[in-house]
Amino acid sequence: MENTMTLTLKVWRQNGPTETGRFETYKVDDISPDMSFLEMFDVLNESLINSGEEPIEVASDCREGICGTCGCMINGRAHGPEKATATCQLHMRKFKDGDTIVVEPWQAASFPVIKDLVVDRSPLDRIIEAGGYITVPTGSAPDANLIPVPKDAADTAFDAAACIGCGACVAACPNSAAQLFTSAKVQHLNLLPQGQAERWSRTEDMVETMEEYFGSCTNHGECHEACPKEIPLDFIAYTNRDYVKSKRKNRKLLGQIS
Amino acid sequence: MIGELRSRTPDGPIDEKWESHKFNMKLVNPANKRKFEIIVVGTGLAGASAAATLGELGYKVKAFTYHDSPRRAHSIAAQGGINGAKNYQNDGDSVHRLFYDTVKGGDYRSRESNVHRLAEVSLNIIDQCVGQGVPFAREYGGLLDNRSFGGAQVSRTFYARGQTGQQLLLGAYSALMRQVSAGTVELHTRSEMLDLIVHEGTAQGIVVRDLITGDIRSHTAHAVVLATGGYGNVYYLSTNAMMCNVTAGWRAHRRGALFANPCYTQIHPTCIPASDEFQSKLTLMSESLRNDGRIWVPREHDEVRSASDVPNIDRYYYLEEKYPSFGNLVPRDVASRNAKTVVDQGLGVGDLKNGVYLDFADAIARDGEDSIRERYGNLFQMYERITGEDPYKTPMRIYPATHYTMGGMWVDYELMSNVPGLFVVGEANFSDHGANRLGASALMQGLADGYFVLPYTIGNYLAPLLGQDPLSENDATCGNVVNEVAERTQKWLSINGTRSVDWFHRELGKLVWNYIGMERDKNGLEKALSEIPALREEFQKDVRVLGSGDSLNSSLEKVGRVADFFELAELKARDALEREESCGGHFRTESQTPEGEALRDDENFAHVAAWEWGGSSDTSILHKEELEFEHVPLTQRSYK
Ligand SMILES: Cc1cc2nc3c(=O)[nH]c(=O)nc-3n(C[C@H](O)[C@H](O)[C@H](O)COP(=O)(O)OP(=O)(O)OC[C@H]3O[C@@H](n4cnc5c(N)ncnc54)[C@H](O)[C@@H]3O)c2cc1C
Ligand code: SF4
Ligand code: FES
Questions:
Q1: B284 and B378 fall within a common domain
Q2: In Å, how far is B618's CA from the nearest CA of chain A?
Q3: What is the least distance, in Å, from the CA of A245 to any CA of chain B?
Q4: Domains assigned to chain A
Q5: N or C: which end of chain A has fewer CB within 10 A?
Q6: Range of the domain at B328
Q7: DSSP structural state of residue A104
Q8: Does the ipTM surpass 0.85?
Q9: pTM for the complete prediction?
Q10: Which atom of ligand 2 is nearest the CA belonging to A71?
Q11: Residue identifier of the C-alpha nearest atom 1 of ligand 2
């Protein structure tokens, strides 16, 4: 085929969480610009298997930019060079014949490497478990149109709800903070009328669980740059505001202050 | 051999069956619920909603997923919307109409009673999701917006931009995590079910491999629920996520559960065509695009002009010409088959001549680029990212791809398989869509099963078991199944052949697509039945799985899944061969009307084909559940 590329890949290989890792260099030929970045990895892995070498573990599932399974540091950037694009949606036409591409796993103490490019992001689930829900047992919800939601509020909540939980924001942050993820999750629910009853406990619980696992935010904004869904930084401000309020409100609810 | 298949459909008028059945079923009293343990495999829409609801009710639930988080299940990728017969638009919708449309849309191959129940609970689903904070689209007044989807005559589809599945799954996942936090659900991520434990004739547990440590062990419970999704990846290329597979269901099948209608597959008409041999999956372009895009191919085989230079007279708007009243909005199966016909005639477009145009030029001229951007901006962007082409300037290229599987594990009215104690929900069962699924109905069915049906019906099975402990994990049955799984795993690692798992999966996919794809005939199906087993033998001798079984090893995960796809593929061919009629997504070229439309044979085939494993892949035994249509008269579909 015409227009195909030859590339050099420097890929992080690590056998397990406690093993030491290293970069390995591989050459791949005949890469078509229409391939996705992960299809390029498929080609490389197939050739590794053919030559008797264990394939590189690299996570993905939907390959449509929505499940949040994929994600690596590509030339030092979370999800690579294309803005608002998850690793699986990056295509090889963004690279040039002869390029060298460095590929590493997410780097954050709270995301230990499982193998090669695959990390453990389960602390994100712990934040949800702490309060990322509205308590509405099955069958107990009122008619869906009973509570009108102003379109602006619905749209803003949606912008927050678009987060795919990939963890790129953490990987991109110099402090490995999870503020963008957490605030997206908090605000999705805090902005809706349905989310008001638990607003203050949710905010406090989720933010404090986040702090148990992740570093603190010093407003670099790298998270937003890396985010495949371009989650706005505003949500962090809203969450900080809600958090401060929640401290007072929750103490009031507990009767500690009047 | 199992006996007669009983659907256990309750008596009474169709619109009272569910209500009266709920009353007649045995209840487990609240204090006793915690004495029952339930395993739920799968945490997509169906599994997460089921596990969360069972946990809320007080059962002790163990939920399993091979994903690292429940939020990653394939349900996340659904774009278009979810149906609900709310009639908020006052356009004449009703439970009865949704019921009617679904039975008819399924080409009369589903069970009326199940479909009616689905339409009834669709109302509660929408309430539940809104209560959880699912941000459905709204009107300026703050009330919910709806659209008409997939050619429906009423606007009953609720949607959340182009990511309805993600928003619904986030809702179910949050409900699930609330129960994890409450301690009623024990969540096991990165844990893959590799076998079912059947003891004294009932399902009592599963064998699971920890994907990180490779540890293989059993888990037992009073009942097992499979919510493990569809088997579309038997085609290799499909719109399904890469890891979707049939293993949980197939292993249950090998332990005695019937597999129903494996030949029913939905091929979605609007996907981005493959670009080369290494294409790993296909991406769906939402069906809604057909509302404004016009589908055409050049009339000439060797057309070299770019799309915009081809004058109208040289364009073949084949759907508009053949189906003047429905035009580009004909149902999915009709649109798909017609695209195949023109591409097979050599009229395809693109470098590989493997697509047809979906052209927005007229819509842009009529409504302006801005309004098209507002309607489809996200989709156009996604298309451009994947193909590098700008659909505002050149028409999209699309081609059909496997999308959804209507077949699955046979279940009765209570969603229980023929193996007592084994329940199956969501896409993994065969129940509600007949031979063809309507758009926006899979999300509805998954959540209906998980939130509103299974949590009731499972009690009817459990109530008499009060006082019994779950099977001990030290029981010999558990040990035996664990050993079998461990041996299978070891076997794959020791073959050390010459070709990768993906290579075999791709080759299998080609056979399945060519012979059991959009059009099937006797000759091709017989070929499939000789070529698939031949390839399978080669696979068993020559597959190469490197690495070990005691750490993350995705080739090892895949090899077991592909092995099960091989056996399923054979059954699929056999089922398609046996069904000598065309219906919905199953088109037998021998059975068509003079105009080339699918021709049903209600006299001989108005039944569910439920297959029993016979000990090897060529000895499956067919059981039939006859279908009766009392409320929706059988008619031949026509879209002219
Ligand atoms: C691109 C796309 C768009 C779609 N759009 C729509 C739409 O607009 N409207 C609509 O109604 N439908 C749509 N569908 C269909 C719909 O999304 C699916 O049918 C539905 O979401 C399936 O849900 P589920 O819960 O049954 O299975 P899934 O969401 O597939 O979940 C399966 C679960 O089972 C787990 N699992 C599977 N096997 C095992 C195992 N052996 N061990 C442990 N865990 C296991 C997985 O980890 C996962 O958690 C779409 C489908 C696709 C592919
Ligand atoms: S905020 Fe963005 S980068 Fe962070 S997890 Fe969500 S989608 Fe990923
Ligand atoms: S694989 Fe799902 S977001 Fe990339």
A1: yes
A2: 32
A3: 22
A4: 5-115 (3.10.20.30), 122-254 (1.10.1060.10)
A5: C
A6: 267-403
A7: E
A8: yes
A9: 0.97
A10: 8
A11: A181
